[in-house]
Amino acid sequence: MTDSPVRPYCAVKPRIVRPLPEGLVAVRQRLVRLMAQKWVNGTVLHYAFREGPEPQRQAVRSAFQEWKDLGIGLGFQEVDEPGEAEVRISFDQADGSWSYVGRDVLTIGTQAPTMNFGWDLTDEYGRTTALHEIGHTMGLPHEHQNPFAGIVWDEARVYEFFAAAPNHWSPETTHHNVLRKLGQDEVEGSTWDPDSVMQYAFSEGLIKEPARYQPGISPPGGLSGKDTEWVRTFYPVLPDALPALEPFRSTPLTLAPGEQADFEITPEASRKYQVATFGTADTTLVLFEEVDAELRFLAGDDDSGEDRNSSLSAKLFRGRRYVVRVRLAWAGQSGDTAIMLW
Q: Is 2.40.10.500 the CATH classification of the domain at 251-341?
């Protein structure tokens, strides 16, 4: 975002933290937390506008398309009814700009927004704002809160800056969105990208260290090279042809943390089926049904951190096409897992 002391800033919603059992090994906890907000690749996120002028809506559409044009497996589709959308967008000018992070949107009631834009999106700063909020919905946190950034703040001046117009933030909001450092289980890699679309601009005098940023930080706006690299790595383009998941045949999965396996199901009979993983791995398992050439969510399960396996049960119909996707968080003690349909 551009460097301006009068710019309003995004106030991202707090993460909805999933409780984990006591006694989990540290590496397992980190991987489970890291994957908690991320989508299964191949998901189509449906978005709907609750209100708003057409120029503002078009700016948001263009931002979704800009992310998609990077060549990624995640999809975005506008729908008319907010109740049919995972992402529900408002334009309340009195509420600032914000979004929930990643899969947290699924915990929000279907009549409530999951994203809001509180200022004009038709200029360059607005374009970056729209890209930024969509980044949150894809699972990205604020970049300046990266624990590897090494930022030492002049905290008193930071609180003073954000308490003033146009943000009027409480100390709690400022701490959550600026001063709070993310845990290492909330970020990928070990580097900080000051040019990221998820990075705020900061004025002179707010940062003590690193010394080179004492005059401020001025990201160029838009998506950085590292933003592009991250999203293409985590949500790569998926192949059109998928292997078949045959009933009563266990299929071994050899996946690294964050990797995904995808299968096609074409039932020979209409009946209730079950799909499950086996082993000690932590996985997210999602079943989609093809409707009008689009994959729509049918069922999902996530066993991460629990002493069980992801399992789905659904009635599948002969002549229809289904896709099951399984994404690994932790490979388990043996490193082996499998999936089966019956």
A: no
